[in-house]
Amino acid sequence: MQINSNQRVSLVDIPETSPIPAVLLWIFLSFTFVLAFINSLQEQVPGFGNVILVTVGAVISQFPGLAVAELYRRKPTRIRFLFLAPAFLVSQISIFGYLLLVMAGQLQTVDNAAQMHVFLVPILLIIFTAGVYLLAAIIAGVIAWPNHGRQ
What we know:
single chain, 151 residues, mainly alpha, Four Helix Bundle (Hemerythrin (Met), subunit A), elongated, transmembrane, transmembrane helix
């Protein structure tokens, strides 16, 4: 595929075997990991094991997107492309949420209910991810249903 300097390129124009979506999602996951780690250190989560647990919990919602990006790279289809949108949506919401939490800084007092976000945000991200992928699966089913049984 030849691209001129003034030609716009979209995700659909990326060659079939391009690792660009997966690489972008890995970069977003790494950025989310760093932001979640900084936030858990700011909030003085007790115990380094809990810091790692909270940080890994923050990025676990992005692993389905990495799997989708790898499947799309191996065999791009219209249905698999549909699942890339939730992958990027989840990663961007994760980055935006943790960026806001890091920019807010440390709370005045460490021992109060305002620290619940450290443990609650990863759980909410996982629930949001499940909902977004469920919606994408329903849309994919609606798109694929008319072609069911046809060769």
